[in-house]
Amino acid sequence: MSNKVITxxxxxxxxxxxxxxxxGNFSGVLRDLSLAIKIIWREVTKAxxxxxxxxxxxxxxxxxxxxxxxxxxxxxxxxxxxxxxHLAVMGTEEHxxxxxxxxxxxxxxxxxxxxxxDGSSNIExxxxxxTIFSVYRRISQVGKGMLMDCIQPGxxxxxxxxxxxGSSTMLVYTTGDGVHGFTxxxxxxxxxxxxxxxxxxxxxKIYSVNEGNYRYWTDGVKKYIKHLQEEDAxxxxxxxxxxxxxxxxxxxRTLLYGGIFLxxxxxxxxxxxxxxxxxxxxxxxxxxxxxxxxxxGSRRILDVVPTRLHQRTPVFMGSIDDVADCQxxxxxxx
Length: 334
Ligand code: P6P
Prior knowledge:
Layout: H1 8-17, H2 25-52, H3 69-81, E1 87-92, E2 99-100, E3 110-118, E4 129-137, H4 147-150, E5 159-165, E6 169-174, E7 179-185, E8 190-195, E9 206-208, H5 219-229, E10 240-241, H6 247-257, E11 260-263, H7 276-289, E12 293-295, E13 315-318, H8 320-330
Parallel strand pairs: 1-3, 9-10, 9-11
Antiparallel strand pairs: 1-2, 3-4, 4-5, 5-6, 6-7, 7-8, 11-13, 12-13
Helix pairs in contact: 2-3, 5-8
The structure holds 6-O-phosphono-alpha-D-fructofuranose (P6P).
């Protein structure tokens, strides 16, 4: 049993050495992002104290009012990344338009899209929440990055990942060479390699969907869920239902245990509820790199050609055999 302590920093540097073409810029993106994540972690883990210590709505030592955590997370990531010279532009769930790099800072060659604190409405219930990120190379040639840099298809991502702030805080990412998990050791403030080369089981025993939306589903989705609840389910016994309602937590469980997560299109959300650029694509890259599958019902999520920064997508992702079964029910035209 190796007791080698491998920090995120060391893993990034060793990964860089194994890619001779790496310029070090990209490892800088991950390094800078991990600092922002630690700052967000510090505030998220204090969230429970906000009401107890009366910090809610009060002013901090700088005389600034306490921000909503998702706004805080958004600003923390932007400020950690805007001056580094690695990025040409950013896009975030919290802002309608793309975020240009301020004039006083150098422009880089990467694009960062992120959902700074997904599931933040769950924080008061002490439910795990998450940060999701996606990295592309810019395609515009010169100057500040543009919208075209931020709406590339998911298969062009050069890296993606998520952080789940839960019973422990984990950073899970891929650069296209497998999926690796790092657990934060708060005593030293370092992310330590805890799950190298995560592989999702080819089939699971859990399905994850908001069954409260049943009446809005298509017949195909209804039939698929019914199929999983029958004795003749693929594992010859009904699947278990698990739904946390926090995307990163539901995907993290699906990645480790197998099974399928679904947020289908329905009569309320004809294009699905979840966002393509900073939820569907980064998580689809992670799941596929771990040996799973991620579709929108008829095609790979990573193959969708985006037209808008905040466009939505149906999501079916998880174990490869479970997603294949699901598609047989939900994709009439396939
Ligand atoms: P519903 C949280 O608000 C979120 O964006 C995701 O984290 C989560 O998967 C989804 O919405 C839950 O949506 O409609 O089931 O409450």
